[in-house]
């Protein structure tokens, strides 16, 4: 519920900035939302909104948006890649947001408790993801590690970074250019569920992979649409 409220609030702020809130957010497709957010928020404001909402992944997507018809063009490309990932990476939760894709892995799928070495089973999921990233080279990828609140802040921060780095290293070893990859560790600072329950803590232990258009795709989108 908390996550849903954050997303609704974030979209409302961005859409209001271009005066389209009155059209009704529910009537827009994800591609149209991406176009509106990019046109209204821009990179800097989008990043600030994401940070204020406590959602680094969503902030990265909003911050990288170009908006308008070019944003809609990018959104269609992302629709296709998201469908591909859903088909080939069954261990992931794949969500289309604005002009980007959010791929989420529960840490239990990738890592043993308190470890940052990838499980053998995780390698199949990530290898399939790497194939999709190779098939769609005009994107940049942000890998964000998260933990629950068990343990100290400093330890959780370090663990989240090490887990994100492990995913980056594996993708690089599977022919995804390191120049496309960046990492961020958020420790326990961005929970998506209640840390007072075992189920909530399990949800908070996760790795999020954000896929957004690189400059080449943005330039292509602008050329194709005349924006």
Characterise the protein shown here.
Residues 1-28 and 31-42 have low confidence and may be disordered. The protein is α+β, with helices and mostly antiparallel strands and 227 residues long. The protein contains 9 helices and 5 strands. The protein has a 5-stranded mixed beta sheet with strand order 1-2-5-3-4, sandwiched between helices. The chain has one domain (2-225): 60s Ribosomal Protein L30, Chain: A, CATH 3.30.1330.60. Residues 98-215 form the OmpA-like domain. InterPro entries: Bact_OuterMem_StrucFunc (IPR050330), Gly-zipper (IPR039567), OMP_bac (IPR006664), OmpA-like (IPR006665), OmpA-like_sf (IPR036737). Residues 1-22 form the signal peptide.
Mean pLDDT: 84
Main β-sheet description: 5 strands, mixed
From the helix content, strand content and strand pairing, which structural class follows? alpha+beta
CATH third-tier fold name: 60s Ribosomal Protein L30, Chain: A
CATH superfamily: OmpA-like domain
- Ends distance: 37 Å
Strand tally is 5
CATH architecture: 2-Layer Sandwich
Backbone shape = globular
Radius of gyration based on Cα positions: 17 Å
* Number of helices in the DSSP assignment: 9
How many domains? The number is: 1
Q: What's the CATH class, please?
A: Alpha Beta
Percent of residues in beta strands?
5-15%
Work out the helicity level: 55-70%
SSE string, helices as H and strands as E: HHHHEEHHEHEHEH
Regions with pLDDT < 50 over 5+ consecutive residues?
1-28, 31-42
